[in-house]
Amino acid sequence: MNIVRNMIISAIVLALFAIAGTFFVTYTYDNTIDKINENKRLALLKAFHVLISPETHDNDIFNDIIKIQNKSLLGSKNPVTVYRARKENKPVAVIISSIAPDGYNGNIELLVAINYDGDLAGVRVVGHKETPGLGDAIDENRSDWITKFALKSLTNPDKKGWAVKRDGGEFDQFTGATITPRAIVKAVYNTLRYYKEHRDTLYE
Amino acid sequence: MNNTNQNGTNYGKIIYDGLWVNNPAFVQLLGLCPLLAVSNTVINGLGLGLATTLTLVASNMMVSMIRHWVRPEIRIPVFVLIIASTVTIIELSMNAWFHELYNILGIFIPLIVTNCAIIARAEAFASKNTVPSSFIDGLFMGLGFTAVLVTLGAMREVIGFGTLFQQAHLMFGEAARGFSITLFEDYRGYLLAILPPGAFLGLGFLIAGKNIIDKKRQAHEKHIIEKSPKATEVLS
Fold it and tell me: What is the value of ipTM here, to two decimals?
C-alpha cells in the first residue's frame, strides 16, 4: 500500500513540475513568437534589398510569391519560392530561392535575383553546411566571391565560361575547396536557364 | 581566503572553485560538446558562455528553492524538467531579441540542455545548499566556463583567421563593428585551428598551462613552509 501511495505522491509532484515548466515555456513562446517571425521577415527582407534595391519596385515583394518545382534545374524536389518585384504592375525582377544540391556537405540554399531582361541582379547564400575556413568563403561575411555574379547572364560569359577556373571557366575556386564554388556556379547557371524558359509564367 | 560568514557559507571558496580549482571546463571536463563546437571565435564563445551561465544560475536557484520538496527518487527527472524549460525559454528569448547571434549559436543553444555541467551542479551543489550560495555557485561556474570558451575562442580565432572580435556587432549592436581587429594583413588562415581538432589541441594546451601554474604554486607554498618551521607547527 505504501508503495502505491509513494508512487502517487511522486507522480503528482512530477506532474506539478511538468505543468509549471510547460506554463513558463508556453508563456514565453506566446510573448516571443510575433517578434521571432518579424525578425525572420526582416532578415529576409534585408537580404532582398541587398539584391534588389527598394526603389526599383513598389509591390509587397514578400507576399507576391509563387511556388515552382523543377528538380533538375532548381535543385530540389520540393517546390521553391519565387518572390516577384514589380513597379506599377510591370515586372522588374524575381528572386528565386533555388538550391545547389551538390555542395561538399549537402544542400546550399541560395537566393538568385534575376532582372527582367535576364541579367543577374545578384546571388546570396542563405544557408549552407560547408567546411568553415574553406568552403564558407561563399558566405558574404567571409569573402566577396558571391558578389561577382552580379550582371552576369546566360550569354555573359558563354556556356563554357560558366564553370570554375579549374574546369576551364571564369569563376574563381578557393584554395582547397573546388566542390563548393563549382556547385554554386552550376546552380546559378541552371536557375538562369529555368528563368529563360519560363520567364513569362514566372510573373503571372 | 577564509571569509566565512555566520551561516557557515564560504563565498570566496565557491567563487575560487568555480573560476579555477573546480572549473567545469578545465577540471571537471564537463560540457565539452558545446565547448569544442562553438569556440572558434571570441564572440561565439562569449555568446554561448553567457547563455550557459544564465542557464546555470537559473537552474541552480530553482533547484535550490525546491530542494526540500522533491523526493530523492524523482529529483533527476525534476532537474531535467527545470533545465529543459529554462533552456527553451532562453532560446526563445534569444531568437526574439538577439536574432543574428541566435542564427550563429542557434543549433548549439538546445545543446545546453545536455551540458552535463548544469545537471552536475544541480545534483552536487544546488540540491544541498541555500539559494544565495547556489546563485553564486551557478554564476561563477558559468563564468569559469565562459572564461575558458573565450580564451579558447581567442586562441583559435587568432591562429585560424588572424583576427579578434570579428562579428562583434552580432552581440553588441552596429556600434561594435569597429571592435574587430585584424592582426595580420593578408593572413591566409590556418584551417586546423578552426576545425574541431584545433579545439581539442587548444583545450589540451590550456589545461596543460593551468596544471603548470598549479604545480608552480604548490612548489612555491611548499618552499615557504619548509623555510619557516613555525608555519609548519601552526598548520599541524
Answer: 0.70
